[in-house]
Each structure stands twice: as C-alpha cells, then as structure tokens.
Amino acid sequence: REAEEKSAAMDKSLYKGVWVYIEQVAGHIRNVSHELLGEGRRLADTMGQELAGILIGENVESLAKEIFASGADKVYLVEGPEFNHYSTDAYTITLTHLIETYRPSVILMGATNDGRDLGPRVACRVGTGLTADCTNLGIDEETGLVAWTRPAFGGNIMATILCPDHRPQMGTVRPKVFKRPEQDFSKSGEIIRVQSKVRPEDIRTKLLGVIQSCTAACNLEEAEIIVSGGRGMCKPENFTLIEELANVLGAAVGASRAAVDAGWKPALHQVGQTGKTVGPKIYFACGISGAIQHLAGMSSSDIVIAINKDADAPIFKVADYGIVGDVMEVIPALITEFKKI
Ligand code: FAD
Hints:
alpha/beta; 5-stranded parallel beta sheet
C-alpha cells in the first residue's frame, strides 16, 4: 500500500540520470563498477541523460579520475571515517539520502556481496523495486524503460523485467557480463561533494576486525586466468593438480557444482548459474562435462581450454582448444611445460 501511494504521488519526470554505485575496497575500485560505468554510458547516451558515479568511502576523492576515465560525467562524493569499511547502516542511509535528494532515473550496482546487501535495502527505503542478478541490460523500445534481463525458474527462462511505476529503476548486475571499458584519462567531470548524514547512533554494528579468507586463488571475478576442476578429477586429493597448475600460471581456482557438492572445494569457488560468473582471458575446464548451468557462468571467457577424456563431452563445443585425454596425465604434462616458460 505504501509503495502504491508513493507511486501515485511520484512525478517520474523529475527522475533523471543513470547512476553507478562505485564499489571500492581499501581504495581500489572493483572491476564490476568499471564494467557498469561502460554499460551505464551506453544506457545514458541512449536515454539522452547524464551518467554519474556514486563514490562513498574514507579519503577516496582521488578515485574520481578513474570514474571519469571510465565514462562518468559526474561523481557524487560522500566521505567520512564511518565509511572506512562497508557498513550496511552507513551506506544504506547515505545512498538513500542521495537518491531522495538528487532523484536518478536508473541505478546500477554490482551483484557482489556488498551490492546484494545494499541494493534491496535502499530500494525498499525509497519505495521502488530491484531486479537482482541481471545478466543483460537494454532499453525497451516501446516504453523507453530499462529492460533488465535475468535467469528465472532455475535458469530455464531468461526473464526481462521493466519497472514502470516506480523510480529509480534499480538492479544488481553480475560481474563480468559486460566488458570493462577502455579508460580515457583525458576526461574529467564535476565532483559533487555531499555531507554525510550518518550519526554514530545510526550504526548498529561494530567492526571488530577483518579476516581475509579469500586469497588470489578464489578471486574468480577479477582473475585473468582460471583453472577449474570438475567431477572428472575423481577425488579431492587430485584437486591439488588443479591448484598446482593454477599456481604455476598465477591463476584462480574454480570448480563445477559437482566438485563443490562433493565437498572437494568450498562454494566460493563454484562457477556457473548458481555460482560465480567469470570472464577471464583463459579458462581451463578440467574434467568438466560442460552442462548448461556451468556454461552460464564461464561462456564469456576469451579462450576456453578443455581437458576431458570423452571426445563427445559438450564442453568441447564451447572450447577454443580441446585436449582429449585423462586429466591425471594431461595436467602434470602442462605443469611441467608451463614451468619451463
Ligand atoms: P559431470 O557432468 O559428471 O562431468 C564430469 C566430466 O569429467 C565428464 O565429461 C567426464 O567425461 C570427464 N572425466 C571423467 N574422468 C575424467 C578423467 N580422468 N580425465 C578427463 N576427464 C574425465 N553446475 C555448475 O558447474 N555450476 C553451477 O552453478 C550449477 N548450477 C546449477 C543450477 C541448477 C538449478 C541445476 C539443476 C544444476 C546446476 N549445476 C551447476 C549442475 C550441472 O547441471 C552439472 O550437474 C554439473 O555442472 C556437472 O559437473 P561436472 O561437469 O564436474 O560433472
């Protein structure tokens, strides 16, 4: 009822501009934010509107030049010690305040842990909807609204969702579904500094410490090379071969759901529809059959190298290079050869 009343009272023509929420960790902008700036630029140009980056953090102003280089016209900057680490309360209050003050038409966020935490809360506070986990974006020709596409019903259909009645139109987008744009550091733009409205009593959680559980080996979304293993690795001990090959190549380690379900690797290594979407330069699929749900997470890789003892395995249909053979023989041979380089 509250949302309906808000919608009826809402003058949608007041909402303008495409925003990208810039996710930064320890002063580094995550790749997904650059990817969304590239896509946001395309949407903003089609809609004839401006593109802005929303930058919240402590001492992060120097990142604005990167945001302009990736295509933004403006940066809304909110700084303060309360933004030192991501905090649900501080960031929700701040992004909600920015939306209520400046009224964007569209907001794009990464479907990351932080984006998935922040997006729905903010959408609820401003009385709009949110399309989560999108894998494509477009503009609906008839309405001019953003067409958000995401898998639905266990990946059996791709649903395209419009948000006709509320503003802003909000969505989270999976990392690596869009290419990172070429940056142009000759570009600059306007920085709009906004005072933080967060009061100490608004923050209901206290950060006691940060435990780094994820090393480079599980940073799949940002990896340039990924070595993934599946059920064809046959037993958990054999996964050391995947790790060794990854180590030699400076790659991250991925796994199929079958390997994760068997307990051979933790879930944060899973690639696919219910795992991570990745887009490395090189993806090694070792003992992975190539089920549609696995391909959904890795098919935008630049080069796919498949190793499988079954010459008819579906993975070979998407592979650029295929090696028909036993992983227990092929992977050690690759390790030996790559070590020589
Ligand atoms: P298998 O399909 O069993 O394939 C093993 C392969 O290894 C075979 O091709 C075999 O020829 C080969 N092999 C065996 N021994 C050797 C050897 N010694 N040397 C070389 N090759 C060998 N799957 C995902 O991966 N990610 C997801 O996110 C995901 N989400 C899903 C969501 C839903 C709703 C559903 C229904 C399924 C999902 N799945 C997902 C599961 C998916 O359908 C497959 O079951 C899974 O990907 C199979 O994993 P696999 O390729 O490792 O195993």
